[in-house]
Amino acid sequence: MERVDAIIIGGGPAGSAAAITLGQRGNHVLLVDKATFPRDKCCGDGLTTLALRELETLGLTPSMVPNWFSVADVRLRSPSGRDVHLTLPRQGVFAATAPRAELDATLVDLAIKAGTDVRQGHRLTGVRNLPGEVQADLDGIGTVAAPVLIAADGMWSPTRKLLGLADDGYLGEWHAFRQYAAVTGEAASHLFVWFEPDLLPGYAWSFPLPGGRANIGFGVLRDGTRKIQEMGDLWPQLLKRPHILRALGEGFAPEGRHAAWPIPAAIDRATLAQRRVLFVGDAARATDVLTGEGIGQALLTGRLAAETILGGVGEPAALAARYRTAVRHHLLTDHRLSTLLNRALAHRRVANGALALVDRGDWTRRTFARWMFEDEPRAALVTPRRWHRRFLRQPGPYSENR
Ligand SMILES: Cc1cc2nc3c(=O)[nH]c(=O)nc-3n(C[C@H](O)[C@H](O)[C@H](O)COP(=O)(O)OP(=O)(O)OC[C@H]3O[C@@H](n4cnc5c(N)ncnc54)[C@H](O)[C@@H]3O)c2cc1C
Question: Looking at ligand 1, which residue's alpha carbon is closest to its atom 10?
Fold first, then answer.
């Protein structure tokens, strides 16, 4: 039986971040994905400051991703129709858009450069989490054993199912739709977020890409009342709203069909680890429940799993406990705050009031922009252990490249 230091299932941001971190420290890592890269992933392609800081640490630079777009201007629209214009700080990149087909392929390339044995087009079909090792059955490869396995296999995590840990009927906290489009209005250069009254606390977006294109879409919280078909029917209605059409411009032309996918955002209830198996990214339901953004959280949890392993695999229960502690330290209070804010923002009046407050002056707009894009953890203000000298004043990622 083939043996390696670590097996990683899934080559999205979570799996690649773990592979790069382990590989750079000389570990023999096998990363398996059922897809062949470049592969698309249904996503808004938006990168928060958190995601950008993690990507910079992994050695990814904007020039490696052909259709990277660094965002400087953001437009928010409140449910009552108030337009709020945020200008992101110019020292570094605080928000960007990168098509997932390109971003994920670049990360997989970086994993290969770090020494990872990446095998594409192979599926995990069985897993045994034994006292002495973990064994993975991989179609077309056979059985591989390792002291530890990282499950980075997304929302439907086959690893979770194969270990008997899946919740029956779990469909994620959000459901989101996206489509690429040619745009000629301000959406060609600005990032738009529309808090539409019928989507709250969800929103519609247009994230700019180079060459007069954009990733447009919307996300809604799954509250048990909306059916997926009804959510899909909202899409053509949204695209007829005058303020959205105005931003997209007269030459707006959708490309292909829109796609939809669930978003898991329940880090407080997810199984983060079972003995020698650590769950990361969407498989750990790590997405921010306030915004549905999960690339930064996927990169972060992938790195945390790798760092836990680098600390020594040792006794499996202790390994699992160390990983759980690390994830909770970085994400649990933020998740709780996001959950509270989500409930509040479901009310139109609160959403209008919050955006009026944001729009009070330059300082509130600037500070909110940093908070919205997770320059600091969501709940940083109430967790003094995470304060630092340059709190909300540090330069953005890639400030050296500008
Ligand atoms: C419509 C939509 C819009 C979104 N917009 C944003 C956004 O703008 N910004 C943001 O930060 N987040 C966004 N998200 C969330 C984001 O897409 C996810 O949180 C992120 O992709 C999670 O990364 P991951 O590495 O955990 O999982 P994934 O990217 O899903 O990767 C999982 C990998 O596992 C592989 N895999 C699955 N099963 C197997 C198997 N049996 N064997 C081998 N491999 C397997 C898959 O092929 C895949 O490559 C959005 C989500 C949706 C649905």
Answer: 293
Rounded to whole angstroms, the Cα distance separating 188 from 45 reads 15
Beta-bridged to residue 6, according to DSSP, are: 29
Structure tokens at 152: 């980075």
Q: Is the CB of 56 under 6 A from ligand 1?
A: no
Alpha helices by DSSP H, listed for 207-361, are: 228-238, 242-248, 295-310, 316-345, 348-358
C-alpha torsion 27→30→35→40, nearest 10: -10
Whole-prediction pTM value?
Answer: 0.97
Retrieve residue 19's tokens.
């592979």
Is 138 a pocket residue for ligand 1 (Cβ < 6 Å)? Answer: no
Residue 183 has pLDDT above 90, yes or no: yes
Q: Which residues of 182-213 are buried (b: 16+ CB within 10 A; e: fewer)?
A: bbebbbbebbbbbbbeebbbbbbbbbbbeebb
pLDDT value at 401 more than 70: no
Instruction: Give, in order, the Cα–Cα distances in Å from 97 to each of 188, 209, 248.
Output: 12, 6, 17
Strand partners, 138: 124, 142
Task: Give every CB contact of residue 378 below 8 A, 6+ residues apart in sequence.
Answer: 288, 290, 334, 337, 338, 371
Which residue, 261, 262, 267, is CA-closest to 284?
A: 267
Contact 286, 331 (CB under 8 A): yes
Residue 394 and residue 373 in contact, taking contact as beta carbons nearer than 8 Å: no
For the Cβ of 32 lying below 6 angstroms from any atom of ligand 1, the answer is yes
pLDDT in tens, 312-334: 999 999 999 999 999 999 999 99
pLDDT tens readout for residues 1-30: 999 999 999 999 999 999 999 999 999 999
What is the DSSP code (8-state) at residue 49?
Answer: H
What value does the mean pLDDT take over residues 220-242? 85
